[in-house]
Amino acid sequence: MRILIVEDEPKTGDYLRQGLSEAGFVTDLVRDGLDGLHLGLSGDYDLMILDVMLPGMDGWTLLQAIRRNDKATPVLFLTARDQVEDRVRGLESGADDYLVKPFAFAELLARVRTLLRRGKVRESDTLQAADLELDLLRRRASRGGQRIDLTAKEFALLELLLRRRGEVLPRSLIASQVWDMNFDSDTNVIEVAVRRLRAKVDDGFEPKLIRTVRGMGYVLDESGS
């Protein structure tokens, strides 16, 4: 899942990006309101974390522009402005939640997951193929009732494959969606990650779910071929 962070304070922005990445999210970080507006309108994000006091355009104005363009992306205001009237203004401007700095990362993460559950994840909290299950809220995977321990990147990779089950995913798409990077043909990071994930998901189970499609990419389906 992709999260856009609009935060001009360098330490806070880097802290958010690192923490959310470790929690399994793909993040984009911009440090001024104009860049935030551009990505907020042109990008496909599951959530925005938005500061109020930003260079270029403040968070209030940015959010109003987002909503005027019928973008329903959930927005969490994260700001040092802690007055009641600030919170009311933020929520009435179209924000879905409001958290005051300084904040505990555990609370931020809980609020992020709650907003995502209300949004695009509302359709289902669990992804499934055959006897493989991925619990998006508890961040757990299991197959045949057996727990599968995954790293954050392995979880994100499996989530992508399950969400687009039956579709051959090229390495370039996987690189952008899971690693947030442009595909570099000199790196084998994707091949290594898929091999490790396949060993955890398929070894000892039938049917085999993750396949390599030579010259094209990877697919997760239940054909077993």
UniProtKB/TrEMBL annotation:
<keyword id="KW-0804">Transcription</keyword>
<keyword id="KW-0238">DNA-binding</keyword>
<feature type="modified residue" description="4-aspartylphosphate">
    <location>
        <position position="51"/>
    </location>
</feature>
<dbReference type="GO" id="GO:0006355">
    <property type="term" value="P:regulation of DNA-templated transcription"/>
</dbReference>
<keyword id="KW-0902">Two-component regulatory system</keyword>
<dbReference type="InterPro" id="IPR036388">
    <property type="entry name" value="WH-like_DNA-bd_sf"/>
</dbReference>
<dbReference type="GO" id="GO:0000976">
    <property type="term" value="F:transcription cis-regulatory region binding"/>
</dbReference>
<dbReference type="InterPro" id="IPR006291">
    <property type="entry name" value="CusR-like"/>
</dbReference>
<dbReference type="GO" id="GO:0005829">
    <property type="term" value="C:cytosol"/>
</dbReference>
<keyword id="KW-0597">Phosphoprotein</keyword>
<keyword id="KW-0104">Cadmium</keyword>
<dbReference type="GO" id="GO:0032993">
    <property type="term" value="C:protein-DNA complex"/>
</dbReference>
<dbReference type="InterPro" id="IPR011006">
    <property type="entry name" value="CheY-like_superfamily"/>
</dbReference>
<dbReference type="InterPro" id="IPR001789">
    <property type="entry name" value="Sig_transdc_resp-reg_receiver"/>
</dbReference>
<dbReference type="InterPro" id="IPR039420">
    <property type="entry name" value="WalR-like"/>
</dbReference>
<dbReference type="Pfam" id="PF00486">
    <property type="entry name" value="Trans_reg_C"/>
</dbReference>
<dbReference type="GO" id="GO:0000156">
    <property type="term" value="F:phosphorelay response regulator activity"/>
</dbReference>
<feature type="domain" description="OmpR/PhoB-type">
    <location>
        <begin position="124"/>
        <end position="222"/>
    </location>
</feature>
<keyword id="KW-0805">Transcription regulation</keyword>
<dbReference type="InterPro" id="IPR001867">
    <property type="entry name" value="OmpR/PhoB-type_DNA-bd"/>
</dbReference>
<dbReference type="Pfam" id="PF00072">
    <property type="entry name" value="Response_reg"/>
</dbReference>
<feature type="DNA-binding region" description="OmpR/PhoB-type">
    <location>
        <begin position="124"/>
        <end position="222"/>
    </location>
</feature>
<protein>
    <submittedName>
        <fullName>Two-component system copper resistance phosphate regulon response regulator CusR</fullName>
    </submittedName>
</protein>
<feature type="domain" description="Response regulatory">
    <location>
        <begin position="2"/>
        <end position="116"/>
    </location>
</feature>
